[in-house]
């Protein structure tokens, strides 16, 4: 079985995001970029499935400019066998990303597609669900445990009420939650080996998919500064202050 894993280049989660002075976007000049953390978890799970003997190949795919090759090489260093870059310089929204991934899925014919449940830059949490609908295959989102058994997968999902366990037929789309696993540390020898692994490039226009955007972002703004707190002497004073501020 072949597993396809989607990864996205995002601002590293340790970096404090800054909005450009004109509000046109986020300042990425000189900012550390990394693989989306949820996508790292997705790749780690794919690699564990392969190491358990339930898959023969893991392919990572990302859409973006040539700068995203850095994240694809990171995926190869973690242990992926091949990488595919969908080259585009424009912004890609979830539906366009799902349509582009569908074209790659049709070419590669994987038995399983694993994605992070969301990207930490826009937090849309849409691409996996859209891909499953377009592909007309089952989906299991927010996975905290995945067990493969032949042509079926048993997935434990994190839902509002607790945990839900479902069984889906393969091929399927799975999106990963934080508690599924802990991604491995990439060692220097693995980084060197990754440079020799194949990285194929496909132009977005060759896929016959419209990039959009379907949504226009007017402006960006930082969150308002947090007001300084006050000290109160008793619970009664706390309740009174909360009522004065319209919070109770």
TrEMBL record:
Residues 23-211 form the Electron transfer flavoprotein alpha/beta-subunit N-terminal domain. Its cofactor is AMP. One of its GO terms (biological process) is carboxylic acid catabolic process. Keywords: Electron transport, Transport. One of its GO terms (molecular function) is electron transfer activity. The keyword Electron transport applies. InterPro entries: ETF_a/b_N, ETF_b, ETF_beta_N, Rossmann-like_a/b/a_fold. The keyword Electron transport applies. Belongs to the ETF beta-subunit/FixA family. The electron transfer flavoprotein serves as a specific electron acceptor for other dehydrogenases. It transfers the electrons to the main respiratory chain via ETF-ubiquinone oxidoreductase (ETF dehydrogenase). Heterodimer of an alpha and a beta subunit. This is Electron transfer flavoprotein subunit beta. It comes from Elongatibacter sediminis. The lineage of its organism: Bacteria, Pseudomonadati, Pseudomonadota, Gammaproteobacteria, Chromatiales.
